[in-house]
Design a protein that fits this description.
Organism: Drosophila sechellia (Fruit fly)
Strand content: under 5%
Mean pLDDT: 78
Protein name: GM10720
Largest sheet: none
Keywords: Signal
Number of helices: 2
Distance between the termini: 48 Å
Radius of gyration: 23 Å
Amino acid sequence: MKILNLLILLVLVAVALSAPAASPDNAPTVSVLRYKDDQDLANIQRAIIAQYERIGGTTKVHQPLTANIVNPASLGIVI
């Protein structure tokens, strides 16, 4: 039983050491984009796509969706 536990521990250590370390250069970021109308949104999308094309990769644009505002009190949730 001790050998099995030691083997599992060694495997976990090896997995932990082989995982790439997080670096601040590729940390994800979140941006809030504000726009006045559909034309402004289209301009923002083109600018973002141009940035991605400069670094390479593929781009897929989805139809923008809107979210409804829900009052938590109407759901019976106490915050």
